[in-house]
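pasting for the record
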Amino acid sequence: MKATVSTLLCLVVLLTACKKNQVNKIQPSITGTWELRSSFGPIANSTQTYPPGNGNLITFTDASYSYYNSGSLASQGNFKQGPNENGDKIFDFTSGYLSTGFEGVLHNDTLTINVTNVQTTLGGNYVQVKTDPS
């Protein structure tokens, strides 16, 4: 009886000790509010930076967005998502103002909105606005 219990105990220890290490990669989420921190354009490779609290925001829910320009609601619409060739998340705006040639790419903690209907580099970088959980 002691041998059976010992054998079962060893078997349990071996099975649990041989478990593969799982690394759970946390996927960034688009849900929440994002604020414009820089914009870039074709004129002399210009970049403009924006301070925190500038009012240029995009708020995302599961499938819709609201775009604010200087604190005023400028557009609302829907979006869909999928990965690109680098594994980053791509967001295509399917309705509203941003559906007229804009694409979002989420890489790490930066959301880049690019203009896709012109043959130049034009867009902006957004960072997620942290909300106070109180």
